[in-house]
Design goal:
Elements: H1 13-16, H2 20-31, H3 35-51, H4 57-64, E1 65-67, H5 72-80, H6 93-100, H7 105-124, H8 133-137, H9 140-143, H10 152-165, H11 179-182, E2 190-192, H12 199-208, E3 228-230, H13 246-266, E4 274-276, H14 291-301, H15 309-321, H16 335-348, H17 361-373, H18 385-390, H19 397-410, H20 413-431, H21 433-436, H22 440-452, H23 466-482, H24 484-487, H25 492-506, H26 517-527, E5 539-545, E6 552-557, H27 564-576, E7 585-586, E8 592-593, E9 597-603, E10 606-610, H28 617-623, E11 628-633
Parallel strand pairs: 2-3, 5-11
Antiparallel strand pairs: 1-4, 5-6, 7-8, 9-10, 9-11
Length: 641
């Protein structure tokens, strides 16, 4: 398969422009924010401080946010990671073995450090310490599950070495098919993005090989363009956030938190989590309303809404009327009109009494930014905002993307969906640069303060040398916009760990009977002696749950070359295209549109997983022989975007 990077064509817009002066200006903006971007950044900061009550950092810290008391952060971290039972008085080995057995060595060490810190805080308060996590790792039950996972570093080295020797098959992004022809000369550096190995284990290897500079003076100088990021294609296909069930996504978040914490430890990033004090919710229906509450109200109007209805309308308006407006997002709207418009929206939005035809794009863009920054808690959450900001201190692009990928997975669903919708719009703005004069640097510089500064969480993002801080703050925003598709995927190593957790949970009842420990060890050993992949070609029964075909099934012979897309094609040909079973809907142009169906892997070592079309079915069968395959309609607006 011909490979394309996770990169859009927006950076090439400037080079395609026929005006030399404009081309030179855009190149300068890509290398460093120009004076216009610099002024706009501080103008946004001043607007936030004046309009949103953003105060002095010290005063803000005392009034709106407080750091957790000694030991509270570790206790909350263990709870978020699904390991709160480690600090319980009556904890059982089985309560923790299921999760701990999936961890790599570096991830386990991160858990140990958090528990040691929590234990130390208890000793200072003269409280009895919890059970040492090493007792859990060394228990007979856990040892029967750990042989494969304790050697994460060795596995990482072997996996990365094999990737280096194997020709790359990379994910294709359809709208980027002309990239290689456009960049035959002067193409930016390529970054290989490996997801089969835990990010923290990759960092261990890079640090040992001295490939991760520790001194700012050794930083690779940005050449004005972001490198193309490619990664080897997994035979189980690409897994996006919306492809998993809620139960499995909960496990993903727990494991992502552990891996992110281990990565922060290795990169020496000191990140303090903050908890926002309870604030009085304003008497409004749109602005200043908690995101989850706003979405809950909107779902009463539109049940499948994944983002607030107001955000959907303002983004839709801006995509139609604003993306071609010169200086959109940068040119401020009229403050008096914005105030009146906000009052009108608060009163009449849900009754349909707001006419968008009379609203200027600049006023709508100002409302969009105002909506984001007036959320009671940051869009990036109070818990993780400082970690997002700390990404600017990471030297290597690969580690930056690793951190951002894990942080996106940690966001609550309403925040994650809202952020994705916002980034999709910003990407469209950048793609129309030749008309609106807003390139990637300009958009990133304008939007960074609106996401990274919030009245409820102290921030040092704007301290120090102005221009340097602006560039570093905008760089995080730039990465979020450019690599949004990559960042909203679930890395393969987390999928493997989730499958392992589910396998262990399915036989956790065996853990309680100490008399069958030897049998458990034998089961674990036998499970590792599975036949080699692709040595057999099973015949699978696929359930069909599409409309009145709900009780139907189809048989499929799985071969080494069978993919999920082939199975869907067979389904369409066998059920939807046949004269007596045709389920298509006739379009105005005479063509037939068929329902958007997907193949789901259900049960076994997964909850529910919508398969990527490129999934190799025989590999999937070998990975989860106990799972069922179901063809059903995809949700119109599912668990994500």
């Amino acid at each position: 398969m011909n490979g394309e990077p996770w990169v859009s064509s927006q950076d090439q817009a400037a080079s395609e422009n026929t005006h030399p002066a404009h081309t030179q200006l855009c190149q300068e903006q890509e290398q460093h924010p120009d004076e216009l971007c610099l002024d706009s950044f501080w103008s946004e900061v001043e607007t936030i401080r004046q309009g949103s009550g953003y105060a002095d950092p010290d005063d803000r810290s005392r009034r709106d946010s407080k750091q957790s008391e000694e030991g509270e952060q570790e206790e909350q971290w263990l709870a978020d990671a699904g390991l709160s039972n480690l600090i319980g008085e009556d904890s059982e080995d089985v309560d923790n073995a299921v999760l701990l057995s999936t961890l790599t060595r570096t991830q386990a060490e991160a858990v140990q450090r958090r528990l040691d810190s929590y234990t130390l805080s208890l000793r200072k308060r003269n409280k009895p310490p919890p059970r040492d996590v090493r007792d859990i790792f060394n228990s007979p039950i856990t040892q029967s599950l750990l042989p494969e996972s304790q050697h994460g570093e060795d596995l990482a080295q072997n996996s990365m070495a094999s990737v280096a020797k194997t020709p790359l098959s990379v994910v294709v992004v359809p709208e980027q098919q002309q990239q290689q022809q456009q960049q035959q000369r002067g193409a930016p550096k390529e970054e290989i993005f490996i997801t089969d190995v835990a990010y923290c284990e990759q960092a261990v290897i890079f640090l040992k090989q001295a490939k991760l500079p520790q001194n700012n003076s050794h930083r690779r100088k940005e050449d004005g363009t972001l490198p193309r990021v490619i990664f080897p294609q997994c035979r189980l296909g690409l897994t996006r956030i919306q492809d998993l069930s809620h139960a499995d996504m909960k496990k993903v978040r727990q494991l992502a938190l552990i891996d992110m914490t281990a990565l922060c430890d290795l990169l020496e990033l000191e990140v303090k989590r903050h908890k926002t004090c309870k604030r009085k919710i304003p008497e409004s229906v749109l602005f200043g309303v908690p995101l989850a509450a706003l979405l809950e109200n909107d779902q009463k109007v539109k049940p499948n809404a994944a983002t607030p209805l107001f955000l959907q309308e303002v983004l839709s308006f801006l995509e139609k009327k604003g993306v071609d407006s010169e200086g959109i997002l940068r040119v401020p709207g009229s403050q008096s009109r914005i105030k009146l418009l906000q009052q009108n929206l608060e009163s009449n939005f849900y009754s349909g009494g707001v006419s968008w035809d009379d609203i200027s794009p600049n006023d709508a863009a100002a409302l969009l930014k105002k909506f984001i920054r007036e959320l009671p808690s940051p869009l990036l959450t109070a818990e993780h905002l400082n970690t997002f900001s700390a990404v600017k201190d990471i030297t290597e692009l690969r580690q930056k993307l690793h951190m951002l990928n894990l942080l996106i997975l940690l966001l609550p669903e309403p925040n994650r969906n809202t952020l994705k919708a916002l980034l999709e719009f910003l990407s469209k703005v950048v793609s129309r640069e030749k008309r609106n004069r807003m390139n990637l640097w300009a958009v990133a510089t304008i939007m960074a303060p609106n996401l990274f500064l919030h009245k409820a969480v102290p921030s040092r993002l704007t301290d120090g040398v102005e221009k340097g801080q602006v560039e570093r703050a905008a760089d995080i925003m730039r990465l979020l916009i450019r690599y949004k598709d990559l960042l909203w995927t679930i890395p393969n190593f987390l999928m493997c760990q989730v499958r392992k957790m589910n396998e262990n949970s399915n036989r956790r009842y065996q853990f309680y009977d100490r008399r069958i420990k030897n049998l458990l060890r034998k089961i674990h050993t036998d499970s590792r002696d599975k036949p080699d992949k692709n040595t057999s070609e099973p015949c699978r029964t696929v359930k069909i749950q599409v409309g009145d075909l709900g009780s139907s099934t189809m048989e499929v012979q799985v071969t080494i070359n069978s993919r999920a897309s082939d199975l869907l094609t067979q389904f369409h040909r066998q059920f939807l295209h046949s004269p007596d079973k045709g389920k298509g809907k006739l379009r105005r142009n005479g063509s037939v549109a068929y329902p958007d169906c997907g193949i789901y892997e259900v049960g076994g070592n997964i909850g529910e997983h919508c398969l990527d079309p490129d999934t190799h079915l025989l590999d999937l069968y070998n990975s989860n022989p106990g799972g069922e395959w179901v063809i059903k309609l995809k949700p119109n607006a599912g668990r994500g975007l």
